[in-house]
Amino acid sequence: MLVDNNLQKILCVKTPLHNSFSIKDLGTLCYFLGFEISRSPSGIVLNQRKYCLDILSDNDLLAYKPATSPMKPSCPLSKSEGLLLLNPGEYRRLIGRLLYLTHIRSDISFAVHKLNHFILNPREPHVIVVFRVLRYLKRCSALVLFFPVTIKLLSKLFLIRIGELALILEGLSLNILCLWETL
After folding, report:
1. Which of these, 11, 54, 63, 135, is most buried using a 10 Å CB contact count?
2. pTM to 2 decimals?
3. Where are the domains of the chain?
4. Angle at the Cα of 28 (from 25 to 34), degrees rounded to 5?
């Protein structure tokens, strides 16, 4: 994913990549890996509102009353109290989806990471807290991250390594977000 206001700089990166690989320009980014991306003259906004609402809908919680906090401060969770869940896979899937939300939602990070400690043997009290987190998300599902245009993410020297290809671009002030995996 290449991000910059200057199309010429993006072409300077895309051309060598296109010469070495088969790439496709998908145009302006709107939705990517559960993130909604909106652009304006003042900056870029990232949110996961649709992803959040999908979680609520999948668990039939759209009609429930919203919670004021993700977790009660005095909520002790134990590995041994309460009945074990008959289907722990559902709990694990839900915690995984909530962990993905913590990329933008730091307000739920503590509760979700605490619940993640019980992923091997989840119990009924853990599910009750998970549903409280979900009810809290209903209350504020539209929180966003805003990146103003005045911030430079990267500058001066870029080394992009994809397989055996290495590109060095000097003197460009191009904002690049690289996603890659190590084999």
Report:
1. 135
2. 0.69
3. 2-42+149-176, 47-144
4. 100
